[in-house]
Write a structure and sequence with these properties.
With 371 residues, the chain is α+β, with helices and mostly antiparallel strands. Helix content is 26%, strand content 30%. It binds flavin-adenine dinucleotide. Flavin-adenine dinucleotide binds next to α1, β10, β18 and α9.
Length: 371
């Protein structure tokens, strides 16, 4: 006899697992969410830029393309209705020389295909009026982009999930699941003490842990589980007051969005993330990378000096490869992908996963397999 039973077991209390738990509980489903850390959002969900992305960069038939715009609108509405701070600063993607202007036009087209509202290319006087200290020949202005207090957002998701009846168990690590006639028998490690739980459905939202979690579900076809890659991103802050009122992005490059300047909800500037492939989880920041950050940032903020930059924090993007190339979309596997009835597995939920979290929750809870 299991220690507990539930309809839906969710693994991982990052922004995505919490949003799914809230959605499922509000729909009247029995939910248990297990999280190995002592609180929510202690991994990727608290190690990012906190940007509410508008959805410009993604192919229109991709999940990112579909869910980012929906997610951004849903996040503003959700946070604004509950007094969670968002700042709709808007964003400028900058062309620092004429050769990049064509790239801005392509990004504008891409964004418009994804229904991103209000995109406009600005140059000359109009650009210097927006940002007098910015060095750029032109920029793509995205008025929807902003930032969110991600901790406040996740705390609200947690509270609403629990108020709707979800049980959230911290310091509880998913160990393994065995298929039964009615669902799964699951073993959870609660700080060295083993507990068993029976459930009908499993939603694997374990971020970097999702690959390992899937390997521990006996009914999963192991060949369907993608190999796990990690792309670290470091941040620097500055002691200098940044003279910008928009988020400033260079043209995207090399699997990331380029080292950008974001302004947090308190008005502080930070720069990053860069991109470095790593073999193990590593949240350190290398102070020697300051010069690289300086070179990139000074291309659009010439008044910055290298000594103005201070190492801050790092996050790690979960990535997968397909046919030898980084696969850039969210990957959500269902039974027809992996063979395990009642299991949904989310892989490579990198940027814009925070922005998309409410839309991802709607998407996952709308899948036929979870009904
Ligand atoms: C550098 C960087 C910058 C980013 N910037 C942005 C941005 O500006 N805007 C944006 O929208 N997105 C951004 N993202 C992406 C965003 O942070 C992620 O998409 C999002 O946080 C993913 O949330 P998650 O819940 O899937 O994963 P996580 O937050 O990693 O949560 C997964 C949870 O599962 C738990 N877990 C793992 N294994 C187990 C287990 N066996 N048992 C129980 N629990 C387990 C972990 O402890 C963790 O808490 C960025 C990401 C990075 C790395």
């Amino acid at each position: 006899m299991a220690d507990a039973s539930t309809d839906i077991l969710i693994i991982g209390a990052g922004a995505v697992g919490l949003a799914i738990a809230r959605k499922a509980a509000l729909s009247g489903r029995d939910v248990i969410l297990v999280e190995t850390n002592e609180s929510f959002g202690m991994e990727t969900s608290s190690r990012n830029s906190e940007v509410i992305h508008a959805g410009i960069y993604y192919p229109e038939d991709s999940l990112k393309g579909q869910l980012c715009v929906k997610g951004a609108l849903a996040m503003y509405e959700f946070c604004n209705a509950r007094g969670i701070t968002t700042k709709n600063y808007g964003k400028l993607i900058v062309a620092t020389d004429d050769s990049q202007i064509q790239g801005l036009e392509s990004l504008k087209d891409k964004g418009e295909r994804n229904q991103v509202p209000g995109l406009e290319i600005v140059a000359g006087q109009a650009l210097s009026e927006k940002e007098p200290y910015l060095k750029a020949v032109a920029a793509l202005h995205s008025p929807l982009t902003g930032v969110v207090d991600s901790h406040g957002y996740m705390a609200q998701l947690e509270a609403e999930a629990e108020n709707a009846g979800a049980i959230i168990a911290y310091q509880s690590r998913f160990q393994s699941a065995v298929k039964t006639a009615h669902g799964y028998d699951v073993v959870i490690d609660g700080q060295g003490e083993e507990m068993t739980l029976s459930c009908r459905h499993i939603i694997n939202a374990a971020g970097h842990g999702s690959f390992q979690v899937s390997h521990k579900i006996d009914a999963m076809d192991a060949a369907s589980i993608p190999p796990h890659y990690m792309a670290k991103g470091q941040y620097f802050t500055t002691t200098k007051k940044a003279p910008f009122s928009h988020l400033i992005y260079p043209m995207p490059s090399g699997g990331g969005l380029g080292i950008h300047l974001t302004i947090d909800t308190q008005g502080g500037a930070r720069f990053g993330p860069d991109i470095q492939w790593v073999d193990e989880m590593d949240y350190s920041v290398n102070p020697a990378d300051r010069d690289k950050f300086y070179q990139l940032i000074s291309s659009y903020w010439p008044d910055l000096e290298p000594e103005d930059l201070v190492p801050a924090w790092a996050g790690v993007r979960p990535k997968i490869y397909d046919n030898g190339k980084v696969f850039q979309d969210f990957t959500i596997h269902q039974q027809h992908d992996h063979g395990a009835e009642g299991v949904i597995a989310l892989y490579a939920i990198d940027s814009p996963g925070l922005t998309s979290s409410l839309a991802l929750a709607d998407h996952v809870m709308g899948l036929e397999q979870i009904q």
